[in-house]
Task: inverse folding
């Protein structure tokens, strides 16, 4: 992670928007930044999801429980917390891309498209409009800042959790404005950090499936939506 703010600013003079999900990784990322003295703002995105049987439309990445957990962490860390609605951009850029890709015989990766169009476009620009210096996420990846201003994306220390592949769509304009606070640590240590800090999400399980499919059955989803 870059050790100081832009243009020689101290951490206290540096504003960081932290993308929060209510999970362990983003919560520890926020905690580490707060402890280093950065001026942090927690932001969570409300994403599109299909409506399950007998349920409302709930994306697993931004369920009411996840929003509650993220807000509790932000309150504990003493930082502001905002929930922003990106349902329509997410549906158009990620979900429709997923459906169209499979319908044409491809194997699309919706996580890459989410990073390309939502997290490091829509959310990063939101952070810039707030006047933030950086957007931080709980991704497992690292950055190397060179003296000429170039930023290299590196694999995480924990190669089993490395997410640099799904971040490879980022260009220099994005890489210069992001932080990955947990990329230097193994997952086991991140969970331990959450426990040591008494974060309310310390024992929460990781989410592994496509967030917008309520029953994790992508074949059923495609049959229902690829009309």
Result:
């Amino acid at each position: 992670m870059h050790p100081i703010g832009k243009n020689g600013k101290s951490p206290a003079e540096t504003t960081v928007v932290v993308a929060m999900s209510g999970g362990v990784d983003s919560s520890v990322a926020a905690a580490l930044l707060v402890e280093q003295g950065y001026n942090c703002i927690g932001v969570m995105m409300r994403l599109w999801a299909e409506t399950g049987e007998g349920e409302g439309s709930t994306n697993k990445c931004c369920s009411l429980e996840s929003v509650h957990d993220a807000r509790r962490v932000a309150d504990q860390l003493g930082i502001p917390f905002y929930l922003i609605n990106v349902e329509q951009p997410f549906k158009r850029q990620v979900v429709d891309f997923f459906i169209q890709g499979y319908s044409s015989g491809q194997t699309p990766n919706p996580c890459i498209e989410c990073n390309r169009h939502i997290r490091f476009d829509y959310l990063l620009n939101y952070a810039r409009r707030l006047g933030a210096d950086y957007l931080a996420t709980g991704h497992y990846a690292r950055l190397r800042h060179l003296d000429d201003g170039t930023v290299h994306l590196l694999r995480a220390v924990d190669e089993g959790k490395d997410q640099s592949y799904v971040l490879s769509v980022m260009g220099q304009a994005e890489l210069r404005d992001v932080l990955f606070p947990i990329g230097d640590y193994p997952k086991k240590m991140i969970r331990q950090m959450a426990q040591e800090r008494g974060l309310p999400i310390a024992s929460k399980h990781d989410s592994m499936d496509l967030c917008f499919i309520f029953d994790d059955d992508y074949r059923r989803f495609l049959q229902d939506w690829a009309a």
